[in-house]
Amino acid sequence: MHKARAFRPFKSLALLLASLFALCLSVPGWAFQTRIVSIPSTAMNRAFGATVVLPDDYARGSGAARYPVIYVLHGSGGSYADWTSNTHIGKLADRYHVILVMPDGGHESWYIDSPFDPASRYETYVGTEVVSYIDAHFRTLASRETRAITGLSMGGFGALRIALDHRETFGAAGSISGAVDPRNCEDEPGIDRVFGNPARHADFWTRNAIVEDADGFAHAHIALTIDCGVSDYFVQSNRALHDKLIALGVPHDYAERPGGHTWPYWSNAIRYQVLFFATSFRHNGWHSPARQV
């Protein structure tokens, strides 16, 4: 007669815990740090919030390693908290060993220094003051070769505008679903406050439209990436910009993917853009801390 084998709960529990531990080790951990900082603006005589995401090895390292920086701008009506609230962008800081900075650009600033509203000086703020603050307070690689800027919608316009006007600061730039022709946005509430009346100041609207200033990229030597969803209402103006860049012989990365003017599209697109920038940094001689170990 066979004896029944006794059930050993402690041994089974130990095996279960060991299995769970092994599973945890096989799943990549994300230990990036998110900080909210207040960055002052002399140009606008006030301070604005900004989100800074530091890769995990920023804190774990020796304290000597310095990192490239990618500035990521929000869209119309948004804030510095948009990207971290709606996407998993923080994981990209860990994956590519970069610092991500998301400054506040106001609700409808279009990231320009408006001649019609002297209190709206967001190009100076983001393109100069924010960069100076980040370089002074974090371990950055403070060169144009290791600094990039991108953004969505209004922020896509702003990123390209700032990159063109501050080409000594940014060596790479991108646009996601960018409003590259603000003349298509005349009905946007508040846009005339910074661009002026579209009828009386049509020349200012045209002069600042990225599609009309594509030749500015011909001699800027900026690593450029642009994408837009095929269902996005800005896709035609992005195609027009792409065609002009081709005609001018400007090297750039251009993509259209399924999707519209929505967070699911932007959440996906930012992954490709950060990869593009990290590749650009490496081409310029940067080696991530992970590769230096």
From TrEMBL:
GO terms for molecular function: acyltransferase activity, transferring groups other than amino-acyl groups. Transmembrane segments: none annotated. This is Esterase. SUPFAM superfamilies: alpha/beta-Hydrolases. InterPro entries: AB_hydrolase_fold, Esterase-like, Mycobacterial_A85_antigen. The lineage of its organism: Bacteria, Pseudomonadati, Pseudomonadota, Betaproteobacteria, Burkholderiales.
